[in-house]
Automatic annotation (TrEMBL):
The keyword Transferase is annotated on this UniProt entry: yes
InterPro entries in the record: CAT-like_dom_sf (IPR023213), Plant_Fungal_Acyltransferase (IPR050317)
Gene Ontology MF term list: acyltransferase activity, transferring groups other than amino-acyl groups
Keyword Mitochondrion: no
Keywords linked to the UniProt accession: Transferase
Protein name: Condensation domain-containing protein
Amino acid sequence: MDWEYLSPLDQILPRMYFGEILCFPSTDTNLFPLLQQGLSKVAASVPHLTSFVVHDDARPGKLRLERGRDSIDNILVYFNDPLEEMPDYESLKRTSFPVFPQSPLFYPHIPNVPWTAPWPVMRAEVTRVRGGFVLVVLVHHCVFDGVALSELLNLWATCCSLNASAQPPEIDQARLNRTVLQGEELKQESSPPADILKIVNKQSFSSQIISLIKRAFNPILPKPLSPTWPITLYRLPYDKLQGLKQTLNQFAPRLGVRFLSTNDVVSALIWSCATMAMSTSFQRWNFMSYCSTGVSVNIRPRIQPRLPDNFIGCAIGVAYIDMARKTLCAAAEVASFESLARVAAAIRHGVDGITNEKMTEILNYVDSQEDPTKLQWRPKKLNEFYISSWANQRIYDADWGPHIGKCEALRVAQIALAPMCVILPPRTGVESKDGQYGDIELVVSLESLHMDRFRRSKAMRMFAEIIDC
């Protein structure tokens, strides 16, 4: 297997980092060496972790991995702040872990990462608080997606629970094989797929960088700036969400879909309210006004040959959905549940449209281009809002061993300056009914004025609760 190979999908994903913040109640004095020991075992099985993302001299404009350049001591560090200056873990837990950049209670130090290549694949920091600790993990988006990061964290947890003398876990090589996503050679020059925009004049395009920084899923910048937009954490109580889902699914047959998933319903709710918040009074009821969103889609079960569900790499597509602004605003105002159902059905149609054929077309086209930096994975019209779902991550199931325990809260470590939402996994067994069903949590990023409107939107006040100090 070519460990240095990065697929066409890797080449076109944002050249930036994303990451997670994990909160643990452990106060064990030996936890940092245990985390180092566990990560060493993971790196022995997944050599990408000690690699750097570098420019491929043999293929200008493209990237590859360079193995063995990093060490565990560089990847995982201990952030040593005086413990008396740290917040109390029980206070964080009692307020549902309001850990976000503008939080008056707590936000951990985020690892420093370079703006330009070479980029280390992974960086992590441990910060102790009184009565617990926080683990921040950043990974490069050209190497791992959210599902892959979840798999890495589960491996790390397993390795931390092993004896020091235990061997690293054996990893099925199919979980690491990126060549499955290699494009086929095109016999003739083809036009870009609908969701791929080719930049003809890179020099003139550079003048647009300042405006494009506000757009989601943008590979121009390798790392998002420190967030200055307001970030709001929300909780969607399980009972309310299930009631809404059942109501909207009554409209599914007449809207041409078999069902509406929880993700469809949550995405519809957030997109509708965000559109209302970002729209002027005139735009809201303009019959000719349309807007769009991008929704991340896990393609592991969609691509052929099928990737393993636990594939440790990048395997995502983006569904772009257009919708009449009037319909979205009506849904946000809960003028009728049918409006919200129409938004959810449009999202379901978009997600179902991410097929093997569509992804193969994108892979083949990107692989045929000499310089993928001239390509943007977005339609010609930029989407106004981006939704990324981590809802299926199993972070709360992972047991890190008796000295570390289980993660009690997952938060987002990097937020781009863009209108976007990250759907977090249900906190099953943490603050859930009968320890079986958890409330879904959200992280929403909008400009200040828009965030104020978003918080006041009728639909959000009906179905969601703000997590704050």
